[in-house]
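To close the chapter, one final illustration. This time we ask the reader to focus less on the individual chains and more on the assembly as a whole: which components sit near each other, and how the overall shape emerges from the parts.
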Amino acid sequence: MTGTNTTDFDVHPAIDRLWREIENREDELNQLIANLVWYQSVLGSEADVQHFVAGHLQLSGLETDVWDIEESLKELPESGDSGVPFEGRPNVAGIQRGAGGGRSLIVNGHVDVVSPEPLDNWTYDPWAAEVVENRMYGRGALDMKAGVAINLMLPRWLRDVGIQTRGDIVIQSVIEEECTGNGALDMSRRYQADAAIITEPTGGSFTQAHVGVMWFKIRVKGRSAHAAVAPTGVNAISKMVPIIRALEDLDRELNEGSHPSFEGIDHPINLNIGVMSSGDWPSTVPGMAELDCRVSFYPGKTVEEMRSEIEQAVRHASQTDNWLQENPPEVVYHGFQSGGSTVSMDEPHVQLLGSWHQYLNGSAMAPRSGTGTNDMRYFNFAGIPCGCYGPGGAGPHAADEYLDLSTVVPTAKVLAAFMLDWCGIVDE
Amino acid sequence: MTGTNTTDFDVHPAIDRLWREIENREDELNQLIANLVWYQSVLGSEADVQHFVAGHLQLSGLETDVWDIEESLKELPESGDSGVPFEGRPNVAGIQRGAGGGRSLIVNGHVDVVSPEPLDNWTYDPWAAEVVENRMYGRGALDMKAGVAINLMLPRWLRDVGIQTRGDIVIQSVIEEECTGNGALDMSRRYQADAAIITEPTGGSFTQAHVGVMWFKIRVKGRSAHAAVAPTGVNAISKMVPIIRALEDLDRELNEGSHPSFEGIDHPINLNIGVMSSGDWPSTVPGMAELDCRVSFYPGKTVEEMRSEIEQAVRHASQTDNWLQENPPEVVYHGFQSGGSTVSMDEPHVQLLGSWHQYLNGSAMAPRSGTGTNDMRYFNFAGIPCGCYGPGGAGPHAADEYLDLSTVVPTAKVLAAFMLDWCGIVDE
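The assembled structure is written out below.
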């Protein structure tokens, strides 16, 4: 079937064989997800898991491509700077060459995970991948070691059941999805394809749109002094309070706007004050305070426009305080500096994915607009239509993140059928 | 002279010899101060400078006593817990035995210094002890490597000019003055004397009273979540704001009280919010925020009373917010947990010190009430009358801390004459 929405059609015997293989190897897939969770692949620590990924692709018989991103990438528009050099933290791709005459497909995932801190909030060890009542708990179990594991198993299953596709399949494993998108930006410049899919944990819906995201720090200067003569100093923590309040206000204002893809979503735009640090000694008046924030904005709005609104809010808040007027807070940009993107639900590969979802689940694949960013933007910017489709669970970036294991095989079956249908099957 | 206030009397020839020695060796004294500043002896890094101090005392011919404080000290009243084990960070004492028949004296100083962060605020390298226009800049140059250097040189000069005292002199070098007072608490239990003096940088005044100081942390819980769904989380930074405001209010209220020793001092009591830390990722709603604070209180008020006021203010602030009511902030005590102390200006050794100050400076030694704490309390608690007298400068605990080098020799001369007069001179 191609782009139809019916459930009344014959399934190619190769697809049926692949489905049986996937069902029979559920334990192996779950084991692979756990293996990936055990790698504590936070920013800067992605090397080990990427070498595991490359090894797995190679064992499946794919051409593997492992390389460090060049530092000059950070000068490109829509790139970011995580503060960590690229050396020794490679991107990885595996290429399954098709027989020719089919459409090519990129299947992408990221191996980096956010920190599990504060650990006290976890009921489970965030790195143990413990399974309780068919939920696998762990940092990255959902976001997105499960997707990466499916991506790795797709070519392995194909090989083991002896199916060859007509179009090329490129399995991609990137770094820095959680902080800059640099891994995917680099991939989108290195590999071309007729379509791309990212197996982010969408719970069976399809990400057709997502916001842009920008990170920024705000630094407020104080004047340090011994606490015994505190009035001779200026407390940077106290001076930060009106800035915090101004950012909370801006968060409310930003949600007064709207975008067709985000209608019906409660509070789609989020300005998050994620980190505050100030001072290093209880008996010293802190001479500096810093916030580290994340703000989102609708597709179509530029990074430059968003920066201007942030700076205006900070300037406005500073006008209420003499010290802040004379010592204007500094706004510094780092990490994500990239706009949102959309992909049409009418794109042929989205239609096809939706058909297989409908066939296997008995219900339509729901479009979803992400209030967070994800790597799909770089493929859309490069003209490779891309959205996200993956398994379900709860708590990405939160304590007790878990993957709903009952969603993994159904998701893998939809993706496998879509992949064969999109790329074309070489008949035996 | 003993306890008189006249300047019309004969100076003992030994004192006069000692003064000439001090004047002639000014360069050596300044060099010793610089040597001490070069040791970056922040909390946990006191070992090297203490071994230098012990070596210097030994070279002067004193019995030296170098020992690690026992961990059980932290269970005593008025002790604190810095979080750093005592092992390998010794207290040091040097004992100059007298010939007998005189009064004994403890001369005390601390080697620990507070962090120089943020370094950006410094014009000078905080560890270089650079001298510009007769000011020595550096962390600890004033507070109190200068005092420690004077303490070390006092017995060295005595030896070199061949003067023996009747009473014992105990030179003490302690750790943790800046965070707990544990070093001095331990000293006050190990050595007895008829009087004690601490060469803290008083600029030629005498510290007759000082506040009690207590450190405390306040922890506010939030609920972490991905920033894309921030409203499902609770931002601990935002929840900390009313607590910050409540502490600022309490600071004002505490200054509505009064104490006879602190009349005429502007804002003698200071509740300082010294540190705030929260979150570790811009795209995650922070699940915990922590303040680290210092509050002072008048002599006579107990640690328990102060704790109760802090806890009441936090409880009160929490009542304005449902989340804080259901998740009450936690107050945790660490570091300084000790009351203030006073010493009478009529104490014989204070009178005698004042007489020599008057003789050499031509003006009365001004009493001073410290709005910060210092180690004198433990000697007063132990029945050894103690206050502080030392050189001058500016910016203790602040950027560009400096020692006014013109005050060092005059201070050393007062202390040297007082010491000989107090302990008694063995005539040749």
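The longest strand of chain B covers residues 212-221. Chain B touches chain A through 63 residues (CB under 8 Å). With these observations in hand, you are ready for the problems at the end of the chapter.
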